[in-house]
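Input record, target 12 of the design panel.
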């Protein structure tokens, strides 16, 4: 039996906590009741949690393969590196201007954060 001092999780409380706007994205016209959208939301979270390790491995593999492919088209003998020996820091720059600025901004944020 639940004691009165313990909070009770209800569908209404869960819907308020998640927000109607968020749950609206998971609602379908053929839903039987509000629980369908909540169940779909929770299923989406569980699916994302299960897929994250695979997506991580895919991302790392893709990035490494892109790097290996780039070595075939870039003359490495003309490259030098400023701060970090990585293609993000190569001189001449291998990035577009906006990308290079974003890298510099990220490094500045990391420096400020210690």
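The sequence produced for target 12 reads:
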């Amino acid at each position: 039996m639940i004691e009165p001092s313990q909070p009770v999780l209800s569908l209404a409380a869960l819907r308020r906590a998640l927000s109607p706007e968020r749950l609206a994205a998971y609602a379908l016209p053929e839903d039987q009741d509000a629980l369908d959208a909540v169940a779909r939301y929770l299923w989406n979270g569980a699916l994302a949690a299960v897929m994250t390790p695979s997506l991580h491995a895919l991302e790392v593999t893709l990035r490494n393969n892109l790097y290996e492919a780039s070595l075939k088209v870039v003359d490495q003998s003309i490259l030098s590196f400023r701060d970090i020996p990585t293609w993000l820091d190569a001189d001449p720059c291998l990035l577009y201007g906006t990308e290079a600025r974003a890298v510099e901004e990220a490094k500045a944020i990391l420096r400020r954060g210690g």
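The chain has two domains: 1-73, 75-114.
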